[in-house]
Each structure stands twice: as structure tokens, then as C-alpha cells.
Amino acid sequence: MFKSFKAKILGSIAISVALSVAVAVTAAKINIERDGITTTGDIASGMLNQLDKSREYVAETISFEQLAKEVQDKYPNGDIPKSEKNDLLQKVPIIAAFNIGKAGEKQGNYKLRAISATPRNPENYPQTDFEKEVLEKFAANPNHEDIKRHDEKNRTMVVYRPVRVEKSQGCLVCHGNPINSPWGDGKDILGRQMENMKSGDLKGAYVIESDLGPMMSNASGVVMNIAIWGIVIMILSFTASVFMTKGPIKVISVITEQLKSVGSNLTGNAGTLNKVSGSVQDNNNAMSSMLHETSSASEEIRSMIVKSTESSKEASLM
């Protein structure tokens, strides 16, 4: 009885502590991963902010409109060497900022690309229906903020930032009204068709895909440490419980045994009382029978006395 009761108490304690550790570890894993994903998205938005600042800085430092005019004057017939075109292209503010972002991919553990519904580079078309929807949302709302998406399948955090045409940054030199073509044929300084866009129009979007693998690995390491410490605490708690409950369990066991003994005595006394009650009942029945027989004898004696008295009366009369 003692061992069984003790085992139940200690078993309950062990289960409670184990469940507490399991819940704590699970909650820690969920919170760490959630916070890590959120932080990764915030970092990506921060990097995009830096690209925007870089774009502004290049536009303020170098007037692309002036550079285009110089190239036009140098090659009035439009026959610009490929190397010169490439050099001019790298000085476009949005291109310069994009290249700065690409240079930090390896160190920042991310991939930077651009998407557009009307790209000049065929590689920049939206890759999924979701990306098409992103561009539609950006086009419909000029004040739309970044769109963030956790891609669980590829374990990435993807952040989209709208890229709009800005006159102050020389964008209309290439994307503006075809009437302003430096060659008079509707093409820009680099020989591409001008799109008649206006300042503020959506041209496309930056896309930053951050790999969550390293963060997840770090989170797993932290969770593992929490689990190990949880197991250690569980063992210590269980050991302490064994010693702390040892005395009370013995007391409870003694009380239980005494109650059991009292119960047995009460059961025995109840049996004795039943026997005594049966004997008393038998005695009562015997006494009732004797009283009945005594009453009958008394009646017979009384009858004999009456008859004797009557006989005496008759004799005296005679």
C-alpha cells in the first residue's frame, strides 16, 4: 500500500514537471522563430531603406540628365559604343543603388532582384501570381508600404518594396515622353523605347529574399539548450520531491493502516453485536413462551379453585 501510494504521488509530480518543461520548450521555440522571422523582415526593410538613400545620393551627386546630354553631343548620330552605353547605364541612380544591394548579398545572406510588369530585362518579369498581385497593389496605392511574406516551403522571408519613377532622379530621361527622345525616334539615350511614364508611376519593385536557414539553426540551438536545462531542472525537482514527500507519505501510510485496523475492529464488533442481538432476541422469544405457559397454568389453577369453592358450597347446603 505504502509503495503504491508513494509511486502515484511521485509519478504525478514527474508528469507535471515533464509537461511543464515540454510546454516551456515548445513556447520558446515558437517565440524564438517568430521573433527571428519578424526581425529578418525588419532587417530586409532596413536594407531597402539604404538602397533608397543610395539612389537619392547618386542622383544628387551625378546629374544623369546632364550625362545623357554629354553622350548625345559626343555621338550625335546615336552610334554609341557598347562600353560607353554600359558605363552610362551603371550611373543610372536606380541601377547604381541596385548594384550596391547586389554586392552585399553574400555577406547579408539574402538575394536581391527586381520585378516589373513591363521590364526591359526579360528576367525581371514576376515569377509567381503572388508577385503579380504585389505589383497590382503597389500600382493601385501610391502610399503602399512594404509587403512581407514568410515562405515556409523555401524557408525564406521575402520583402517587396515599390520602385517608382522620379523626375528628380533623371528617370524620365529614359522612361518619359517619346517626344523628348534625344534621337527623335521615340527611343532613349541607350536606344530603348521610351514608355511615356510620369513621375510617381510604378516601374516595378525590389525583392529581397532572406534565407531563414541560419536563423532557424540558431533558434534550434537555443531551444536545445533550454530543453537540456529543463531536463536538469526536472531531475532536480523530482529528486527534491522524493525527499520532501518521504516523511508525509509515511505519516499518511501509518494513518491509513490505523484507519484500516479501526475499520477491521468495527467490522468485528458489528458481528459480535449482531450475535448478541440474536441471542437477546432468542431469550425474548423464550421468555414470551414461558410467560404464555405460566399464564395458562394460572388459568387452570384459578379454574380448579373456582370449582373447589363451588363444590364446598354445594356440600354445606346439603
Can you offer a commentary on this structure?
This protein is of the alpha+beta class and 318 residues long. The chain contains eight helices and four strands. The chain has helices at residues 2-61, 64-74, 82-90, 93-103, 105-108, 129-140, 172-175, 213-317, and strands at 110-115, 147-151, 156-164, 202-211. A four-stranded antiparallel beta sheet has the order 1-4-3-2, sandwiched between helices. Strand 2 (147-151) and strand 3 form a beta hairpin. Helix 1 packs antiparallel against helix 4 and helix 1 (2-61) runs antiparallel to helix 8. 17% of the residues are buried.
Topology:
Elements: H1 2-61, H2 64-74, H3 82-90, H4 93-103, H5 105-108, E1 110-115, H6 129-140, E2 147-151, E3 156-164, H7 172-175, E4 202-211, H8 213-317
Antiparallel strand pairs: 1-4, 2-3, 3-4
Helix pairs in contact: 1-4, 1-8
How far the N terminus sits from the C terminus, by CA atoms, comes to 97 Å
What is Rg?
Answer: 52 Å
Strand order in the sheet with the most strands: 1-4-3-2
- Shape label: elongated
Q: Uncertain regions: pLDDT < 50 for 5+ in a row?
A: none
Q: Tell me the helix content.
A: 55-70%
Q: What's the number of helices?
A: 8
What does the main sheet amount to? 4 strands, antiparallel
Number of strands: 4
Mean pLDDT, rounded to whole units?
A: 79
